[in-house]
Amino acid sequence: MTNLAAAAGAEFAIELRDVRKSFGKTEIIRGASLAVRPGERVAIIGPNGAGKSTLFNLISGRFGSTSGDILLHGHKIDGLKPYEVTRRGLARSFQVSNLFTRLSVFENLRCAVLWSLGYKYAFWKFLADLNDANERAEEVMEMLKLEKRRDVQAMNLTYAEQRALEIGITIAGGASVILLDEPTAGMSRSETSRFVNLIREVTEGKTLLTVEHDMGVVFGLADKIAVLVYGEVIAFDLPEAVRSNERVQEAYLGSVLADQQAAAAAGH
After folding, report:
1. Within 13 Å of residue 181, how many CA atoms lie on the same side as its CB?
2. What digits encode the pLDDT tens for the residues 107-154?
3. Number of helices and strands (H, E) in the chain?
4. Which residues have a Cβ under 8 Å from the Cβ of 120 and sit 6 or more positions away?
5. Which residues are CB-contacts of 263 (< 8 A; sequence separation ≥ 6)?
6. Domain 1-89+178-194+206-268's class?
7. Which end of the chain lies in a sparser environment, N or C, as judged by fewer CB atoms within 10 Å?
8. Where are the domains of the chain?
């Protein structure tokens, strides 16, 4: 893969230039612009219906944009298929776990590394003999702290373990840009705290974009925060600057923080 070499020479890892997306006559993304430097961790927040998942789908190639440019390490990727975007160094996880449920933890991770190591469709090769793939899978498994669950089928893991394995699959191929879609959704407070630490560790040195509703996670993980409202990025700054931004408070943040503080006070 050439993504790391490309990253070294590009000012921005991900850049959106006046990106728009319409479904029929309905415009969902209305001229979104964003520039994320290599190694930055950016959280994308906004109210329901703001277009966050649509924006992720545009960046990862699942949707084609109506207009505007999307660049990965300085090269246009809008119009490419998802697997072509992945091969250029961007990987994405989803809100719902997408695992090979009847394969073990180790087998899931090994599947994720094969293409990045140059193993394509070769039915005559025995997986057990692919030492580099096996070693990389073992390495990622240790990063995830799942080595004791090595031979457990994915369907028998706890929810938090499944989410950890999904992130492992996302990073296993060596992508330099990682997109995580609501990685802590459905987790308890203690699970969330551990998971944030895990995300921080396994994405060290990589560029991270995450969609997240938990403001504790956002302010604990992100170097910068992008606020998306009605398909537009209305703020992109350091966490404290976003927290004090009057426009952000009016459009979104004030009510969300109040709701989460009330829930915490009630013991939820």
Report:
1. 17
2. 999 988 886 766 655 444 556 667 888 899 999 999 999 999 999 999
3. 11, 10
4. none
5. none
6. alpha beta
7. C
8. 1-89+178-194+206-268, 96-173
